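for the record, two folds in this file. i put them one after another cuz i was lazy. first one right below, seq on top, C-alpha cells after. the second one comes after a little note so u can tell where it starts
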Amino acid sequence: MAAGATEREAELAAEAVGADAAPAARRRRAVALQVARGSARVVTVAAGLALFVIALDAMKTGAAGARPFLERLDVGGPVNAVGFGWLFAYFVLSGSPVAATSVSLLAGGAFTPEESFAAIAGSRLGASFIVLAVGFLLYLRGRRSPDGLAVGVIALLVTYTTQGPALFLGLLSLERGWLDPVRFETPASVTSLADAALGWASDALSARLPDLAVLGAGVLLLLASFSVFDRALPQLEAEAEGIRRVFRALERRPLMFIMGVLVTLTTMSVALSVTVLVPLALKGYIRREHVIPYVMGANIATFIDTLAAAVLLGGSVAFIVVLNEMVWVAAVSLTILIAAYGPYRGLVLGTARWVTARPTHMAVFLASIVAVPLLLLAV
C-alpha cells in the first residue's frame, strides 16, 4: 500500500512539474517568436532603406534625361510643377515617392528650387486622394455610411486649405531667403559610405540604360522601397481596437494633432496614417471633427522622409526647399488651430457634408480635383 502511495505521489509530482513547465515553455516560445519577428522587421527595414538609397541615387543620376521629357510636358515654373506633382501623386496613390522624386530632380539639375518646392507641394495635394478612394470602395461594397467618404473629403479639404497658403509663403520665403541661414551639409562620410556600399547599383543601371530609363528605374525602386517599409511597419488597421481606445482618450484637438504626427512618423506615410481613419470612422470610433487636427499633424510629419532624401542627396539647397515646406505648413496649421479653429472647423465640416450629401455633389467635387491640376499643368 505504501509503495503504491509512493508511486502515486511521484506521478502527481511529475504532473505538477509538467504543469509548471508548460507555461514556461509557452513563454519561451512566445519570446522566441517575438525575437524572430523583431529580427525579420529589422532586416526588412534595412532592405527598404537600401532600396531607398539606391532609388535616390538612380534618380539623381538619370535626372538629366528628365529635362526633355518635362519640356515635352511643358513643365516649367512653379505653377506647372504643382500640377505635375499633384497628378503624379494621383497616379502612384501616394505623395512621398513623388516628393522624393522631386528632390532627386532638383539634385540632378532637372528642377529649379522653386519648381522642386512646388512639385513637392503638389504631391501633398494629391496624396490624400487614396483616403477618398478607400472610403468610396468601402461605400460601394455595401457600407452605405457617408462617414468613410467624409474622412477622405475632410482630409483633402484640410490639405488644400493649409497647403495652399503654405505654398505661397514658401515660394516667397525661397525668393527672399528667409530660411537660408539654417544650413545643413551632409557629412562627407555619410555620402561616401552610401556610395561605397550601394553606388554600384546606379552605376550598373547607368551603364546599361539611357538617362530617362535610369530615372524610371529609380522611381520604380523608390515605390518598391516604400512597399517594403509598409511590410515592416505596424499594421494599424489590424490593431483598430487598440487605436479606438487611444482616440477616446484624445478628444482635445492638440492631442489629436500630436497623434497625427506620431502615427505618420511611425508609418512614414500620410496616405497610410490617414487611410486608417476610414474603417475607424465607419465603426463609429472617431467623429468627423477629430479628423481635422489629426490630418494637420500628419501633413507636417509626412515631410520627414522627404527631408531624409534631401540629406542623403547631400544638397543644402534641397534641405532648404524641404525645410520651407515643413515650416510653412506647420505655421499655417498651428495658426488655424490656435486662432481660427471654430470657424475653420465649421467651414470644412459643412463643405464635407455638402459634398457627401448627394452623388451629384460628389461628382462635382471629384471633377474639380482632377480638373484643377490638369489646368495647372496646362497653363
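(here's the note) second protein begins now
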Amino acid sequence: MRALIAAGAVMAGISLAAPALASGDAAHAPATDWSFKGLFGTFDRGALQRGFQVYTEVCAGCHSLRLMSYRNLSDIGFKEEQVKEIAAAVEVEDGPDDEGEMFERPGRPSDRFKSPFPNANAARASNNGALPPDLTLMVKARIDGANYLHALMTGYRDAPEGFELSEGMAYNVYFPGNQIAMPSPISEDGVEYADGTKATVDQMSRDVTTFLAWTAEPEMEERKRLGIKVILFLLVLTGMLYALKRKIWADIH
C-alpha cells in the first residue's frame, strides 16, 4: 500500500511539472548534512517536533499525511497527554450512529491525520486545478528526497528577465521546468517555535524536511540498530569459524 501511494505521489508531482518541462532545467539540489543519514544516523527529536509544528501551521492546509496516526507522534517525543490534545484539536467524521447518520467528534490518538480536503476534486478546486500530493512518503517518492525537498522550499526566486512565467505559477530554481503551482510555503518568522529556535526559512525547511523523512520511514532507527547488531554478529561468527578452521586443519599438511 505504501508503495502504491508513493507512486501516486510521484505521479501527482509529475502532473504538476509536465506543462513546464520545456521551460528550463532545474538546478541540482545541494547536499545537506542530515542527522538521520549514515549507518549511525538518528532523528533529532527537537527538529522532528519543530517540523511537526511547521507542517501543522504551514503545510496541513493543503497537504495530507494519510498514512500517519496521531498516536505515532509519541515516537518523536510527545507525551501521551500532548498526543491526546493534538488529536482532540481536530474534528473527524465518524459513524454511522444508531440512526444511520454520520457525525463529527473530536479526534483520538488512534485516528489518521485529518486530510485538509474531503476528496481530490475539492483539493483541485481550491488550488487552481493543481492537486497537492500527500506528503507521508514524499521523501521516498523523490530522488535524493530530503535534499530535494529542502532545496525546493528554499528555491523560490523572482523569474529572470525573459523567462515566461505562466499565470498562477511561481518560479523555483529546483523544480523541473522552474515553474511550480505551489507558492512559496514558508517565510521568515512564519511560525513561532515553542522551544524559542529562530524561525528562519532555512531552519523551517530543515525541520519540516526532517519530519517528513520520519513520516516516510518511521522505523529507520530501529532498522539501523538491528542492522548494526547483525553486522556485529556476522563479524563474531566469521572470527569463530576462522578459528575453528585453523584448529581443525592445524595438524593436516
